[in-house]
Amino acid sequence: MLTFFTQSFKNSFRALLANKTRSFLTMLGIIIGVAAVIIIMAVGAGAQSLILAQIKGIGSDLIGILPGKSDDKGPPASVMGIVITTLTYDDIEALKKKNNVPNLLNAAAYVKGVETVVWENNELDTNLNGTTASYTEIESSNVEEGRFFTEDEERSLARVAVLGSKVKEDLFGQSEAIGHKIKIKKHGFEVIGVMAEKGTVAFQNYDDQILIPISTAQKLILGINHITMARAKADSEENIGRVIADIEKTLREQHNITDLSGDQDDFTVQSASEALDTITTVTDALKYFLAAMAAISLLVGGIGIMNIMLVSVSERTREIGLRKAVGATRANILSQFLVESMAITLIGGIAGIIFGTLIAFLVALVAGALGYEWEFSISIISILLAVGVSGFVGLIFGLYPADKAGRLDPIEALRYE
Amino acid sequence: MSILINVENLQKVYLSGDIETRVLRGITFKIEKGEFVSIMGPSGSGKSTLMHILGLLDRASSGLYEFEGVDVTKLSDNELAKMRNEKIGFVFQAFNLLPRTSVLENVKLPLAYSNDKSSMDSRAGAILKNVGLEHRLTYFTNQISGGEKQRVAIARALVNEPSIIFADEPTGNLDSKSGTQIMEILQHLNNEGNTIVMVTHETYTSEHAKRIIKIMDGRIVDDYLVAKRRIAKDGEMLK
């Protein structure tokens, strides 16, 4: 039995080597399909690791408060760029009161915009972030030079600005920034501090922004009364659930919402881990889509194999006749051709694994070079899946031609021209 | 002498649609061990069909066929394959060797479907030496001449030590010199005790056998021993 299989494999390789170009082209469908499976699994895992790292960067004890209600599992409309004005500075002040949300450590409000900043002859388009004095605590950000603005300045329309490290660099270069006057929308602001470099966390660049007191940004620059979003921190991770419930209760009181089921809410309170779930839903959908593409590729590859095996069977009709004449049974012939089609798919599968791993490694390399925390991982499961699927494809699509070969009448086969 | 093949009233009818073609119309004869029989007849006489049935590649429509005393008409396809593997050697007009495969591998082909391998494995080389091809073992079959190809085919037919060798127009695709060599080998094998049944339409070739069975329109029209047997002597082969 063992010698029979080694013999079958030898025969298969001989047949495959005899038509190198044809064998390669036949394998191509399988190579692409298997490579796709490997790449999808690896890139999927890499993207997930990236998102996880980003979310961890914000801190899992962080709670986001957004205007507008989120429907089902999707994010609230405000994320999509629709302006909703239901959330205000007073709402956040209410949250900070101990009897409203006892387990709240602190909360910060934000208004955001993009403005041109001018210093002497230098101009720079950057993100304007009007926020509260609690910003440094909420975002775990540190001031490198000078100081952050105070709660008094936050409320008194003070014209002070704290620069992100990149803005400082672009606007002032090596020279001193503290104490200088910059202009935003023709209003002069005094630079009182420069933030330490932080990089990109949760897809938000912390270095390319200017921080000014929220009231100043609302009244002087943007001319609005609402806030874009708010963030809150719980005193411990265990209390996140309680804090979210308390925040929701407080905001309903603030907005005179009597329906406690949440259906009437005009805001969304979400923890970082919940936001992660939302993102995972999206990446999972993408993964399934790509997996479907891979499946189609494998299917097409399998049909190609069936086609070429049928050609091979009719080309080797006389060989089949001879083998039967010297004692091969129907099962012998059938298994010979099955082994051959499985050999094609398995070799194709192995080539696909190598090819796919190479691509996934390149993606990880490029992502790493771009500064993302991209984890390169090829799971055993994806390799087993690829080998299993390609072997299965060879078996299924090889079955019909192999059966046809096995059923050939030896006399007809021997006479075949 | 023991009876190797016993056929009685063998019939073969092909049905295509409503048209019935009677290829064999009652064939009866016996072949004993050690015989060298030529089955002769023009094309369409049914001689190839008869050889296919005798060689267990085909089944008769009716009649008795005993091979070594076994009624083979009742055997399953797999049992027939096993008998072909163990008892029968074939030599075809078109050689039917595997391309891109060495001479030695071709000779060993029947072993792939046999249970008793080890003894035959060593035999392959020895048989190739007997047919004068020991210098061609590793050659591919597309690198050797027609006469050499047929000698490889004969070696392949011998490797399982069959009870009988069927040769279907063995010299049909060969020049006269190569043909003579093949006949010399077959006669030599017969002298060593091998039973040989050869199908041919040439009187000259058939006269190398000891006995001739003539077939016409599916019936035996003559069955006689060759009085003046031709002896193939090429001189270069088989010292």
Task: Describe the overall structure.
The complex is a heterodimer of chains A (417) and B (239). In chain A, the strands form two sheets. Chain A has a six-stranded mixed β-barrel. Chain A has 13 helices and twelve strands. Chain A is elongated. Helices cover 56% and strands 18% of the residues of chain A. Chain B has 239 residues and is of the alpha/beta class. In chain B, a hairpin with a 2-residue loop joins strand 9 and strand 10. The relative contact order of chain B is 0.19. The mean pLDDT of chain B is 90.
Briefly summarize what is shown.
Chain A contains 13 helices and 12 strands. Chain A has 417 residues and is an alpha+beta fold. In chain A, strands 2-3-10-5-7-6 form a 6-stranded mixed beta barrel.
Average pLDDT confidence of chain B is 90
The parts of chain B where pLDDT drops under 50 for at least 5 residues are none
Shape by Cα distribution of chain B: globular
What structural class do helix, strand and pairing data of chain B support?
Answer: alpha/beta
The percentage helix of chain A is 55-70%
* Class from helix and strand fractions of chain A: alpha+beta
Residue share in helix of chain B: 25-40%
Give the oligomer, counting copies of the same chain as homo and different chains as hetero. heterodimer
Strand order of the largest sheet of chain B: 6-7-8-3-9-10
- Main beta sheet of chain A, described? 6 strands, mixed, barrel
Low-confidence stretches of chain A: none
Residue fraction in strands of chain A: 15-25%
What is the tally of beta strands of chain B? 10
Compressed to H and E, one letter per element, the order of chain A equals HHEHEEHEHEHEEEEEHEHEHHHHH
Features:
heterodimer, A: alpha+beta, B: 239 residues, alpha/beta, 6-stranded mixed beta sheet, 4-stranded antiparallel beta sheet, 10 strands
List the helices and strands and how they pair.
The complex is a heterodimer of chains A (417) and B (239).
Chain A lengths: L1 H17 L1 H39 L3 E6 L21 H7 L8 E16 L2 E10 L3 H5 L3 E4 L4 H5 L4 E4 L1 H8 L8 E4 L2 E9 L4 E2 L2 E2 L3 E5 H9 L6 E6 L5 H15 L12 E5 H44 L1 H9 L4 H40 L10 H28 L2 H6 L2
Parallel strand pairs in A: 3-10, 5-7
Antiparallel strand pairs in A: 1-11, 1-12, 2-3, 2-6, 2-11, 4-7, 5-10, 6-7, 8-9
Helix pairs in contact in A: 1-11, 2-9, 2-11, 2-12, 9-11, 9-12, 11-12
Chain B lengths: L2 E14 L2 E14 L3 E5 L6 H8 L7 E6 L2 E2 L5 H11 E4 L11 H5 L10 H13 L15 H13 L5 E5 L7 H16 L3 E6 L2 H4 L4 E6 L2 E7 L14
Parallel strand pairs in B: 3-8, 3-9, 6-7, 7-8
Antiparallel strand pairs in B: 1-2, 1-4, 4-5, 9-10
